[in-house]
Amino acid sequence: MKDLAPNALLAAPAEIREIAAPRSPEDEVIALFDEYRAPVLRYLISCRIPLPDAEEIVQEVFVALFRHLRAAKSRSNLPGWIFTVAHNMALKFHSSGKRRSQYFEDAPAVLDRAESRIDNPEQQFTANEYRIRLMSVVQALPEQDRSCLALRAEGFRYREIARILGMSLGSVANSLTRALARLSRI
Amino acid sequence: MRNPHLADEDLVRSLDKESSPAVLAHLNTCPLCRERARLLQNTLEHFVELRASQRLPPADFARSALRASLENEPETAPLWRKLTMAAAGVALVIALLPIVFERSASAGARPRAAITPGEVRPISLEEVCRSRDAKVVVQGIPKEIQNAVFTAYGMKPDAGRFEVDYLITPDLGGADSVRNMWPQPYSTTWNARVKDKLEQRLHQMVCNGQMDLPTAQRELAADWIGAYRKYLGR
Question: Which residues in chain A are contacts of B75 at CB distance < 8 A?
């Protein structure tokens, strides 16, 4: 007892509480959903999946995550897991050709809904011009380059991107370089 | 001459702080490459910003839809319980195997008591014991009687894998009637050859005075497989 710092004793009840009342898998999945829904949705849209289908795939991804957690499988790198599953579902979606709607959100439609933080109309115009051009160049990128860029924009590192997309590190580097070099020419 | 500047790939890697010391050293001394790196960096930032400003439908509906599907997810047992149950299942199958095997091995080997209760004809002990052993070869049963037996069992006459046999062997006083015959499968463990051994054994016992004739007949009629185990072991 003498060796224990007073803080150690104070800390104990909190730990016990955490063990006694663990978060239900439902709550955990909802928390992860709140954190990753938008990035995953953006990623799926950049995979040219129409918004309604993308929303549906997001649901499937998180139901799969729920099963994954409930089966007490690996919890390491859950964001990577989420995007890997989303990417695979996107591939499946394209290969099955089960696209529900023919509606595809192109660059201008997305930009119409883009929030603008610029007040000056002239600056706004220039900024919009740039965004439209940026968006159309992105749309014209090869699929793999676009995926790499989208994942990089969501903050993933090369290694994680390679794992999610099932590519080699070298190909990820090539894709990212190609994509950024093209965008930088605008 | 070799281009002294860094390739785009090195510059892009440097944005992710994944570059080698040599690349970093070059960046420190080369304003041109630093400029190029900054351009690539800005491009990436513009792209990130553009994506982040993309207005998505609100999450509320999607969240409650997700919650509803999670609540409807069927309860599944955790892995250890699944494994335990699988192990228990395997153990059960192993435990039941002899019984199941036995069942299938003796399927059809026993006659149906309602159709073939076994019937005897009057015979003296002397007649039974005139020959030293029960005759192994069953005399030919007339075709019409065989067909009648098959019909009684709801089978087509001449069903390939069956032979019409006596339940109580004529050597021990079995009658030549349909009620003493059944279609015995060739292929079970408990086939006619095995039954012949039992019949020889019972014949010996009857003639040695170890068993009376009616008991031998009853043993054959009631459950010849059980009788085999009883008198010949196994």
Answer: none
Tell me, yes or no, if the pTM score tops 0.95.
Answer: no
CATH number of the domain at A45, please. 1.10.1740.10
pLDDT tens digits along A37-48: 999 999 999 898
Taking the CA atoms of chain A, what radius of gyration do you get in angstroms? 21
Please give the full DSSP string across chain B, using - where no structure is assigned: ----SPPHHHHHHHHTT---HHHHHHHHH-HHHHHHHHHHHHHHHHHHHHHHH-----HHHHHHHHHHHHHHSPP---HHHHHHHHHHHHHHHHHHHHHHHHHHHTTTTSPPTTT----B----HHHHTTSSS--SSPPPPPHHHHHHHHHHTT--TT-TTEEEEESS-GGGTB-SSGGGEEEEESSSSS-HHHHHHHHHHHHHHHHTTSS-HHHHHHHHHHHHHHHHHHHH--
Burial of A80 (0-12, 13-18, 19+ CB in 10 A): middle
B65 residue type, one letter = A
CA distance linking residue A85 with residue B56, whole number of Å: 21
Residue type for position B42: N
Q: Judge if ipTM > 0.90.
A: no
Q: Which residues of B touch A (CB under 8 A)?
A: 7-9, 11-13, 16, 18, 39-40, 42-44, 46-48, 50-51, 53-57, 59, 62-63, 65-67, 69-71, 73, 76, 78-79
- What's A124's domain CATH number? 1.10.10.10
Range of the domain at A141: 119-186
Nearest to A54 by CA among A87, A6, A21: A87
Q: Look up residue B151 and give its amino acid.
A: T
Q: Dump pLDDT digits (tens) for B22-51.
A: 888 898 899 999 999 999 999 999 899 888
Are both A93 and A165 inside the same structural domain?
no
Of the candidates B16, B17, B29, which has an alpha carbon nearest to the alpha carbon of residue B6?
B29
**Could you tell me which of A150, A185, A161, A178 has the C-alpha nearest to residue B18?**
A161
DSSP A140: H
Q: What Å distances lie between residue A87 and A24, A30, A108, CA to CA?
A: 27, 20, 24
